[in-house]
Every structure is written in structure tokens, then in C-alpha cells.
Amino acid sequence: MERGEVMDMTIFNKIYKKKYLNMSNNDIRDTFRRFRNALNEAEEHVDNGEWYDPKQNGIPYTQQDELLQTSIQSAREQFGADFSKIKTPMFYYKADDDITFSGEIPTLNDAKFQFSYKSYPNGCFFWSGKGQIIITDEVVTKLSRMHGVYENWVKELNNAPDKKPMNMKNID
Known about the structure:
- The strands form two sheets. A five-stranded antiparallel beta sheet has the order 3-4-5-6-7, with helices on one face.
- The chain has helices spanning 9-21, 25-44, 66-79, 137-159, and strands spanning 46-47, 50-51, 59-60, 90-93, 98-105, 111-116, 124-127.
- The longest helix is centred in the C-terminal third of the chain and has 23 residues, at 137-159.
- By secondary structure, it is α+β, with helices and mostly antiparallel strands.
- It starts with 8 loop residues before the first helix and ends in a 13-residue tail after the last helix.
- The chain is extended, with a radius of gyration of 25 Å.
- The chain folds into two domains: 9-44; 59-168, no CATH class.
């Protein structure tokens, strides 16, 4: 059969019936068991309707976390960061005790930024996927402020009695 050619429905029905209607009860049960296991496994990794894998994605900070709120406020005020397109801007990674904080800078072609606590002093990342950013005095000032916010963010985390998200406080 050539690409784009329509299959004769009688041939399709014969193939379908041969493959699926001749399945034994054990085959059908096995298929349902595999689907059920896959769904159960997926449900274990869903948190508030969002896919969540603690080994890869870390543990999200919630809007009630003071560390998240002060980080957002500082980034907005100092270099115009925006978090409206990012559901969870800050994560805690238990395996290596790292914390990341991410957002966008709309005035710089929606450039992305991310801070990494464990990568200090080289954990202030910036990239733009939407084209060029012309380096002007204003852009240099904004990037300098972003780096200053990063430095203060790391100091604040170092001074925090417990850096973990609220839902993990006092848990080892």
C-alpha cells in the first residue's frame, strides 16, 4: 500500500479482528493489568495535578514559603523578573541539598534566569531563546542587579535556619 492510500475497510476489519478479537481472556487481563500498573505508577508522581518526580524535579516551594516570597519580591523589584508563566519557580533537591530559583525577564526578550544555591559562586544563569539582546547600559545594569540579587539570595539561604520548603520542615 502506498503512502496516503486509503486502506480498504474490509482488510482493516480482518486485521483488527484477527489481532484484537482473538485475544484470550488471559491476554485481555494482562493488558488491563499493565494499564492499571502504569496508571498507578503515574498517580504516585502527581502532586496537585502536576507531574512530580522528586528524584529529578525536586520538591517545590509553595506560595506560603517565606523564602519563595522574599525571593520573588526581590527579583521583581531589582531587575523586573516575572513569574506568571512559571507555576513553581523554586525547588529544593533533597539528594544534594540544592535549591534552584527560576523566572523570566520580560524586558529582555523574555530571557530566562536561574539561580542555583549549590553552584555558588557560579550559579547565576541567564539565557534568551527569543533572539538577540542588545547590550546597552540599561541591560548591563539589569544583569548586574540580577547577579546582586543572586548573591543576596545565597546569603539569605545560608542564614536560614531551615532552607527546606514548608512541607518538609523539621524532616530529615
